[in-house]
Each structure stands twice: as structure tokens, then as C-alpha cells.
Amino acid sequence: MSKILSIALNPAIDISSDADKVRHTHKTRTHNQRQHAGGGGINVARVIVELGGNCELLYLSGGATGTLLEAMLKPLGIRQHAFPIHDPVRVAYNVRELATNLEYRFVPEGPQVTEAELAPVFDLLEDTDADYIVASGSLPRGISDGSYARMAEIAAAKKARLILDTSGEALHETLSKSKVFLVKPSLGELASFVGQEIDHDNAGSAAQAVVRSGAADYIAVTLGGDGAILVGAETIQRVPAIEVPVQSAVGAGDSFVAAMTWSLAEGHEIGEAFRFGLAAGAAAVMTSGTELCRRADVLALYEANKG
């Protein structure tokens, strides 16, 4: 089995609750509160372990919320590398309004991080023997938008495969300055990167142009309720969404990336890993709040839709 390292530079404590109705000004009484260690890279590690894989986790942690985050991660059986920062870890909040089944997601920008605080992360990357490195989530304030590009260069020098899931300037800088093995943008994120309007019909050709430019070996474009597209230099594979009862969209993208990475680490080819990712994304929306996907659901959905 290949080794996986997941990176969370802007982790969070994710809290989710239900409310009968969300109203401005008035107090909104909530119930059924749940809390999980979260943020892109942490969610990826959680899902990989849930699927039965082994995953090391590298993350930044500071303040009282950082202490709580570390305590929440301990029971999960993930080998951890927590690097200290001065500012506290952010707390994100998700409320599902039962009257409409709509979700309201409040995601703070997170701590200010210095380049000096980030330096030990690169030191560990230089020493890791991971075969797959997953860089997932937003970058914290204060560090260079090119931080993921630097990670991609380190991974390439070590012949490790870097899998990227981010947005905005961090995505643009990485794909413009380095090469990754796999990147998972949404349709909007891909459009922003190429600088033109993209719809479901031309998303495949737009992504293929990015692959052929040398920015990535593969791009998996997620299309929400319309499924996803896997693009290589010579292939475009489109798969429809798996129809499931929707509880929450939280963590669907992270589950997709995690399941693809897990499947690749198990030795499966990229197309099969792509279908595992779709199954995990669908399984994640079946759970409420920040629970993410369950192994049994992922395997059942994959088997039912692998044809």
C-alpha cells in the first residue's frame, strides 16, 4: 500500500446544528449539535482512515482551539504532525434550517500565519517518504499564495504525487508555476483559472487544455448535481451524479478527494479511483452536518454504480 500524507494549513473545528427556522435579529435556537475536527486536509485524513487506509496528517495548530482540535483528533488513529502557530485555530459553524432543509454555513478566514511558522512544514515535506501528498483547503492569511506550488516542486523532486484541492489565487499560482498529479476544481474554480466562461458542455475541453499545458496530469472537475468529469491528456470521462437522499453538502468535495487518493494508494487505476471519489462524495451528502461519509455507504454506492 502506498503512503499518504494529508496537509491542513488552515484547519477548523466544525460545529453543526439544526434549527426549526433561521431568522435575523431574533435568537435562533439550535439543537442536535455535533462537532468534528475539520478543514480540507483533516477531512481528507478522516475519510481515508474511515475507508480503511493509513494516512499521516500535517496541520497547523494554535491557541485554545488548537488544543481542542488536537484532542479531537487523538481518538481517530491518525499519525499526526502538529506545528504550532501563535493565532488560534478557526471555528466554523453550519446550521440546517428544518423548515426549508437549507444549510447556512459560516466559515471564518482563520489565523494569521507567518512564513517562519510555516517553515517546519516544508522541512517535513523534504523528509517524508509519502507516495501521495494531498494539499487540501484554503491557505491561511499571511503566507504566500505560492505555498502549494512550492509543495508541488518538493513532491516532484521526490517523485511523489501531489493532489491539490484549493481555490482562488492559491490554485492559480500552483497551476501556473508547477505541475501536480491531480487537481479537483469545481466548474467555477476552473473557469476562474482559465479566465473564461465555462459550462458543462465545454468543461472537459477546457480542462484538457490545462492538462496539455503541463499544469497537471489529471483534472477532476466536479459539477455538483450533474456529476463530474475526469480529464487526462488524451481522455475525457464524464460520469453522472449518484442519486441519494441529501442531508448536508458539507465535506462532499473532501470525501471525493480522499476516496480518490485512497483508491490510488490501493493500486487502482485512475478511472476506478474517480468512481470511488464519486461514490464517497455522494455518501457524504447522505450524512448530516460535518459527519462526512461512511465506509459501508461508499462501498455500496460504488458497487451499485461501477458499471
Automatic annotation (TrEMBL):
Family classification: Belongs to the carbohydrate kinase PfkB family.
GO cellular component: cytosol
GO molecular function: 6-phosphofructokinase activity; ATP binding
Protein name: Phosphofructokinase
InterPro entries hit by this protein: Carboh/pur_kinase_PfkB_CS, PfkB_dom, Ribokinase-like, Tagatose/fructose_Pkinase
Sequence ranges assigned to domain Carbohydrate kinase PfkB in this UniProt record: 11-293
SUPFAM superfamilies, per database record: Ribokinase-like (SSF53613)
